[in-house]
Amino acid sequence: xxxxxxxxxxxxxxxxxxxxxxxxxxxxxxxxxxxxxxxxxxxxxxxxxxxxxxxxxxxxxxxxxxxxxxxxxxxxxxxxxxxxxxxxxxxxxxxxxxxxxx
Length: 102
Description:
3 helices, alpha+beta
């Protein structure tokens, strides 16, 4: 089994190195983009100062959203994205078979 590779990510203008398997890289980058946007929203609001406090507030906001979805108060975007990805894979496979015919 291959060792996870290290990926460089940026949050709130700061660079971090994160271990990540190749098959999880896209999901990691989506999570980074989402968290970075949340952190920037908090910073722009100007009510919270310091990267550590901004990170904690963003983590609390994301945890609140997650719990809301788990409790049925919201739409499970992650599940929808996984289903869409599975459908796209099936469509790509079907199209590839059709292209071989011509």
